[in-house]
Write a structure and sequence with these properties.
Layout: H1 2-18, H2 23-35, H3 45-73, H4 77-82, H5 84-108, H6 113-118, H7 128-140, H8 145-174, H9 179-187, H10 194-202
Length: 204
């Protein structure tokens, strides 16, 4: 199943490239479809998602090394130095927007106060698709695209440095960093759908 999913993803990527459409979006849609359906009628959709994760985890290290190495090699350090102040302003503005949006959404959803306070920390990290889109901008607009790409990559790097530690803090404060707690939630009998099972295993 995992091999078929990988081959299907490669096929759609090639088709989108030939049609001059957006392959990143095609891969995201293919991943959503593959991760949210069963192999046979009545089968748990998590099985297909796990198969997809298994096959992608094999090739992901090689992809990450090449992708981020090429992204760093294409970074214009001179332009980055000129836009560092703007990058910091965008970084802080994004954190503030995440805090406001996540807090409001969590409050409207009826989350506990202690979770509302830390919800924004889980959304800071960004990398792969963002760098890919920045690269698309640089290639599509050669006059000003490379400078904008350097600015965007600088903001992404800041988010990548700060995001994982904040996410870890959020998990610890939410009580979901306890392996025994997570295992007990996974083993708890569930009467809902597979999505409900996954959410119950993640959320306290």
């Amino acid at each position: 199943v995992g091999v078929l999913v990988a081959l299907a993803g490669a096929f759609f990527y090639i088709v989108q490239d030939v049609l001059k459409s957006e392959p990143l979006l095609a891969c995201v849609v293919a991943g959503i479809y593959a991760g949210n359906r069963g192999d046979r009628p009545g089968e748990d959709m998590l099985n297909t998602g796990e198969s997809l994760q298994t096959i992608t985890s094999i090739v992901l290290p090689l992809i990450n090394v090449s992708f981020f190495t090429l992204g760093g090699a294409a970074l214009d350090v001179d332009s980055l130095g000129k836009t560092l102040e703007v990058a910091l302003m965008l970084f802080v503005s994004r954190l503030f927007a995440l805090f406001c949006g996540a807090s409001l959404g969590s409050w409207l959803a009826g989350w506990p106060r202690e979770h509302i306070r830390i919800a924004w920390m889980a959304f800071v990290t960004q990398a792969g698709v963002s760098i890919g889109l920045a690269k698309e901008v640089a290639e599509s607009f050669p006059e000003w695209g490379p400078s904008l790409k350097s600015l965007l990559v600088a903001v992404i790097v800041l988010n990548q440095l700060v995001g994982p530690p904040l996410f870890k803090v959020a998990l610890i404060q939410a009580g979901d960093a306890n392996p025994a707690l997570i295992q007990s939630k996974l083993e708890k009998p569930q009467s809902g759908t597979a999505i409900d099972t996954a959410l119950d295993a993640i959320l306290p």
